[in-house]
C-alpha cells in the first residue's frame, strides 16, 4: 500500500507514521512544510526505515504538490494544518490558506485519480461549544465553530463533504477530541504545564479554569484512524473521543500531583477570546460500527506523557528554538 501522510513531522502525524510502519506492505511518503510546528526530530526514529521517505512541501503551493503526486497513492491521510487556536485568534490568514486551500489541493488530487482514497483528520471543535449538562456531540450535530481555527477546519470538512456529494470520490472525515502524548508542541496545554511544573514556573490557566476538554492519548487516535481506513464507509464522518472529560484545572492538578509539585504554581490569567466552554464526544458510531475504543486510561497516558517530557527536555528546547527561527 502506498500511503501519503501530510503533516507527519507534527505531533499526531508522526505517531501515525510510527504505527503504520509496523504493518507489512506499507510504504509511506510524508509531506510536511516544516512550519514552526513541524520538526524532523519528531521523525528521527524512523527516518532510515526503508519503507519511509520524506518530502518537504507546502500543501498550499500547487507546484510543490504536483511534484509529490508524480506517483499515485492508495491513500492520503491528511493531518497537515495550522492547529493552534490562540495563534488563529492573533491572525487567521495562514489558517485559511493551509487548512482550506491545502485541503482543496489534496481533494483535487483524489478527484483527478492521483490518489485513490483520503481521510481528512478533523476536530470536535467544528461542532462549537457545549454547556454542562448538554448531550455530547454526535456526528449529526450542526457545525458551529467559534474561533478562526475551528472555522477553517469546518470549512475544510465542508469541502470534503462537497467533493463526496458532487464527484462521489472516496473520502472520510474523523473528528477527534483533544490529544495528548509525547511530541506535542510546547504551546499546547499539557506539554506547557509539564514543562512549567518541572521548572517550578508559574502555569497560566485561562479564565476560571473550568473549561472542559475530552482527552485522548495520541496512540488511541492513530489506531482509530487506521480502523477507519480498514472499515469506514466513504462519505461518512466518525467522531473519536476518550470518554474522559476534565476541566483544565483538574488536568493541571493531576500533572502537579504526579510531579509532586505545589498547586500555588497555578496562575489565573486573562481568558482566551471566544473560549469554548466544553467539548464532549459521543463516539457510539465508531465504537459500534468499527469496533474501536480507547485503550489508555487518563492516568496511564498522562504518566507516560510526563515521563517522556521529563526525559526529553532537549526536544522541548529544540522546538522552542525552531519556533523562534520561524
Ligand atoms: P501539529 O501542529 O503538531 O502538526 C501540524 C503539521 O502540519 C506540522 O508538522 C506542520 O509543519 C505541518 N504543516 C502545517 N502547514 C503545512 C502546509 N501548508 N503544508 C504542509 N505541511 C504543513 O498538529 P497536530 O496536533 O498533530 O494536529 C494534526 C491534525 O489533527 C490537524 O489537522 C488538527 O486539526 C487535527 N486534530 C488535532 C487535535 C489535537 O488535540 N492536537 C485534535 C483533533 C484533531
Ligand atoms: O496556556 C494555556 N492555558 C490554558 O488554560 C493554554 C495553551 C491553554 N489553556 C486552556 C485552553 C483550552 O481550554 O487549555 C485548554 C486546551 O488548550 P489547547 O491545548 O490550546 O487546546 P484546544 O484549544 O482545546 O485545541 C486542541 O484540541 C482540539 C488542539 O490544539 C486543536 O488542534 C484540536 O483541534
What are its keywords?
alpha/beta, NAD(P)-bd_dom_sf, three-stranded mixed β-sheet, binds thymidine-5'-diphospho-beta-D-xylose, EC 4.2.1.46, dTDP_Gluc_deHydtase, single chain, Rossmann fold, 326 residues, binds nicotinamide-adenine-dinucleotide, dTDP-glucose 4,6-dehydratase activity, lyase
Class computed from helices, strands and strand pairing: alpha/beta
Which cofactors or ions or other ligands sit in this model? nicotinamide-adenine-dinucleotide, thymidine-5'-diphospho-beta-D-xylose
What kind of sheet is the major sheet? 7 strands, parallel
Task: State the total count of DSSP E strands.
Answer: 12
Please name the CATH architecture of the domain at 2-180 and 216-244 and 278-296: 3-Layer(aba) Sandwich
Which consecutive residue ranges, at least 5 long each, have pLDDT under 50? Answer: none
Pfam families: GDP_Man_Dehyd (PF16363)
InterPro entries: dTDP_Gluc_deHydtase, NAD(P)-bd_dom, NAD(P)-bd_dom_sf
Family: Belongs to the NAD(P)-dependent epimerase/dehydratase family. dTDP-glucose dehydratase subfamily.
Organism: Halalkalibacter hemicellulosilyticusJCM 9152
Amino acid at each position: 500500500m502506498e500511503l501519503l501522510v501530510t503533516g507527519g513531522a507534527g505531533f499526531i502525524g508522526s505517531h501515525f507514521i510510527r504505527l503504520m510502519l509496523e504493518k507489512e506492505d506499507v510504504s509511506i511518503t510524508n509531506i510536511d512544510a516544516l512550519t514552526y510546528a513541524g520538526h524532523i526530530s519528531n521523525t528521527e526514529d524512523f527516518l532510515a526505515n526503508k519503507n519511509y521517505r520524506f518530502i518537504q512541501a507546502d500543501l498550499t503551493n500547487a507546484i510543490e504538490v504536483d511534484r509529490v503526486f508524480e506517483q499515485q497513492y492508495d491513500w492520503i491521510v491528511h493531518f497537515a494544518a495550522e492547529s493552534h487556536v490562540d495563534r488563529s485568534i492573533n491572525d487567521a490568514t495562514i489558517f485559511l490558506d493551509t487548512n482550506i486551500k491545502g485541503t482543496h489541493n489534496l481533494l483535487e488530487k483524489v478527484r483527478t485519480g492521483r490518489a485513490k482514497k483520503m481521510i481528512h483528520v478533523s476536530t470536535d471543535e467544528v461542532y462549537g461549544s457545549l454547556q454542562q449538562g448538554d448531550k455530547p456531540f454526535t456526528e449529526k450535530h450542526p457545525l458551529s465553530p467559534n474561533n478562526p481555527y475551528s472555522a477553517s477546519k469546518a470549512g475544510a470538512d465542508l469541502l470534503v463533504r462537497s467533493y463526496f456529494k458532487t464527484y462521489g470520490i472516496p473520502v472520510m472525515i474523523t473528528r477527534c477530541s483533544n490529544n495528548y502524548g509525547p511530541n506535542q508542541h510546547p504551546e499546547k496545554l499539557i506539554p506547557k504545564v509539564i514543562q512549567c511544573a518541572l521548572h517550578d514556573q508559574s502555569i497560566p490557566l485561562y479564565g476560571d479554569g473550568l473549561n472542559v476538554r475530552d482527552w485522548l492519548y495520541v496512540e488511541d487516535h492513530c489506531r482509530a484512524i487506521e480502523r477507519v481506513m480498514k472499515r469506514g464507509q466513504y462519505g461518512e464522518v466518525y467522531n473519536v473521543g476518550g470518554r474522559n472529560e476534565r476541566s483544565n484545572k483538574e488536568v493541571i492538578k493531576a500533572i502537579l500531583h504526579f510531579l509532586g509539585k505545589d498547586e500555588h504554581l497555578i496562575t489565573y490569567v486573562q481568558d482566551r477570546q471566544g473560549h469554548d466552554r466544553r467539548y464532549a464526544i459521543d463516539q457510539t458510531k465508531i465504537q459500534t460500527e468499527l469496533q474501536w475504543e480507547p485503550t489508555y486510561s487518563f492516568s496511564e497516558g498522562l504518566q507516560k506523557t510526563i515521563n517522556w517530557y521529563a526525559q526529553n527536555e532537549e526536544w522541548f528546547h529544540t522546538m522552542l528554538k525552531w519556533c523562534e527561527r520561524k
